[in-house]
Amino acid sequence: MEHCKKSRRFLSLLLVIVFMLSLAGCQSSGDEGKPIAEKPSETKIVTDLLGNKVKIKANVEKIAVVPIPWATIVYAVDGSGKKIVGMHPSAMKAYQKNILKVMAPEIANANSTFVDNNFNINYEEVAKLKPDLVVIWDYQPEIGKKLAELGIPSVAIKYGTLEDVQNGIKLVGEILNQQERAAALIKYQQDTNSYLKSKESTLAGKNKPKTLYLRDEQLQVATGESVNKIMINNAGGVNVADEVTGDSWKKVTMEQVIAWNPEVIILSNFSEILSEDLYKNKLSGQDWSKIEAVKNKRVYKAPMGIYRWDAPCVETPLMIKWLGKVFHPDVFTDYDMRADLKTFYQNYFNHTLTDPELDQILSSQLNPDLKI
């Protein structure tokens, strides 16, 4: 009898164990026997603009940026500057005097000494930043190798065309898991390009003003290999320095400028040069008095938004539209520059521009003869 009781207790215990194991089995499987989803990977692979496959953190939180305009591309794609831990000193210089300082005050904390003006990196300093990723130029493979030795991944970017900029925006979107924001910025660029193409037939019958894009007081000009040439062409102008090759910017002589005799001069924001410097012949060793653009008061300071519009960036479509108003106000009549700017900043940066901010971006006070 006692033996039977023990057998029944043993059988009951066995049934309980089997029942508990079956419950555990159900819990270890998803609904309808599906396996539990694996833990999301902590890394991912992106392909940079040279075709390199780069393993990076799935959620990048800290980025150091070597190329000058690309810190603002990171900001535009991410909608914040919080992930920017390092940027080029020239980019920081632009930041300190443009509207981005108001829109993203956090960028002021970014290190701007880990890289010098010639894009050389201080490896000890960049290591202290502990970045998840460094953005470098396409011509810096040795820097990429040294960063890899420090355990820091890097992606290479390039630009020489507007398509390069768009590909770079797409890459940043993939890095930051912001594909939708990146796609929207790219679509704006492509839509603007389509609009500009629609004006080509009208512009074909127009005089295309000979234009000099002047970087600084040292007579560095935008060459035939610069993105500025593309900007000028797309807006219905002709770059007088098309024959100059080798670099995007190159120093020329005053005699060469006189021979070109540009009808319009655009002054970049890479220097503090102003139209008055040319109108009043303030630059030592240079005589601008015989230049057509100077005689007709057609020297203009380029705009600067979240970055200098002189260089390819997310605002390049706006730069070309501005040039269109400068060259052919009778052709580019179907948009208002100030309204377009307000819409762009609202849609892509979630920032409502004030009238003083619009004037600041468009360099209105520096261009009193230009009614935009």
From TrEMBL:
InterPro entries: ABC_Transporter_SBP (IPR050902), ABC_transptr_periplasmic_BD (IPR002491). Residues 62-331 form the Fe/B12 periplasmic-binding domain. It holds the Pfam family Peripla_BP_2. Keywords: Signal. SUPFAM superfamilies: Helical backbone' metal receptor. GO terms for biological process: cellular response to iron ion. Residues 1-24 form the signal peptide. PANTHER family: MOLYBDATE-BINDING PROTEIN MOLA (PTHR30535:SF34), VITAMIN B12-BINDING PROTEIN (PTHR30535). Belongs to the bacterial solute-binding protein 8 family. This is Iron(III) dicitrate-binding protein. It comes from Desulfosporosinus fructosivorans.
